[in-house]
Amino acid sequence: MGSTSAHNDREGVGRRDLIKRSAALGLISVPAMGFLSACASGDSGSDEKVDKGKKTKGNPLAVNESAPLEIVIFDGGFGTKYAEDAKAVYEKNFPKAKVKFSSTQKIQSVLQPRFNQGTPPDLIDNSGAEQMDMGVLASKKQLTDLTPLLDAPSFDDPAKKVRDTLRPGIVEMGQLDGDPVWIMYYAYTIYGVWYSQKALDSLDATYPETWDDMLAVCAKAKKKGIAGWTYAGKYPYYVPFSLYPMIAKVGGREVLDAIDNLEPNAWKHPAVKACFEAYYELFKKGYILKGTPGLDHIQSQTAWTEGKALFIPNGSWVENEAAKTMPKDFDLAVSAPSGIDSSDKMPFGTIWASGGEPFIVPAKAKNTDGGMEQLRIMLSEASSKNFTSSVKSLSAFNGGTDGIELTPGLKSGVAALDKAGENVVNPRLQDWYVALQKEQIGVGGLGEMMAGRLTPVEAIKKIQGYADAAAKDDNIQHYKHQ
Asked: Are 460 and 267 in contact (CB under 8 A)?
């Protein structure tokens, strides 16, 4: 697995590449326009579908048991073994079917011509630097609606539908506009404030639930020569991993929905102002590691694992990515963001968690039922446990951790999800409006504010301007929470 990353690995492989498909941080630009024109002409292939099989208790999607199946997996930080293991289950259940399995780091280069010809594979892990634009694919009717999969009996318990076995937000993330579910996100990422439990214990401190307590912990750390916070200063769109769920905690999830919907004045909500002012206080009081605005994600993570700063906003891939520099006794932990005070709308524990690793079944695939059946197998407890134990990530299956020895970060993440209960939020800016989230809100707004070059009021005004411009831009596909 290793701790590769999109920045220090020119192939753009690595956990971040995968998980960021949910966060859609867009560290590498995706040449979507070429794909747009290509998809528009994707009608030259044959529309011959394989015949339906016989629907039985063990074959609820009526897969044709002798029809070939083709799977293409992105070969990145998660590797491909988890998918190959699930393929072996398909082959066991359908021994007459010839299954072709391949992997690539260049999803778009390899598969775009096949979409053009109308001969795409049956199941694709559409991830990595060359991820295909799913909004474009859906709007060009190139994807299969996965509702039949979601409504099928789950692999382990026929009394439960597949949709009832999934973690919060997975189904909604697969919808782009309205009801069809076009995408099945297979990995599950927890975002929040990451820290060393050992470092916190050494300060005789507990994780702070209010902002006054947060400032007190940072003051305590400063006396020992430790900064309170660091973050990826060159890529400040990491800051929202803890800031966005804090905004929801303070003002309610509808504040984030309004921001996602690009509503006028959404950023001027009092909860946004309160949270921006709170983060700005970290700068003003000197609680941010000196030089942070010039650090990339690896440098900031390294400074943090070396004990130079207590807290860092990040996603659950950090456990794997920072493994090389993380001391054995670091005791990695994650928490939901601190709030302001007891007047917050949502309880402490409100956290951002969402899907990553998007799988799609092309509309023109010959064996769409087989593609969906392969996903049904992957969403079984056994496949999920296999994924979690081998790649240190939760899957979309809500469970699959019993009997596995979890790493400290994963264990802490599971506990954080348990604490959150229903209070899991999933801001969509990062997968609906990549440039807005990354360059404008992240670099142009939050990055400038955290470096002390903009006040919270100035940052909010600037960010609201960016959001208004995006809302008026007819070249951008617009989405709304239903």
From this structure: yes
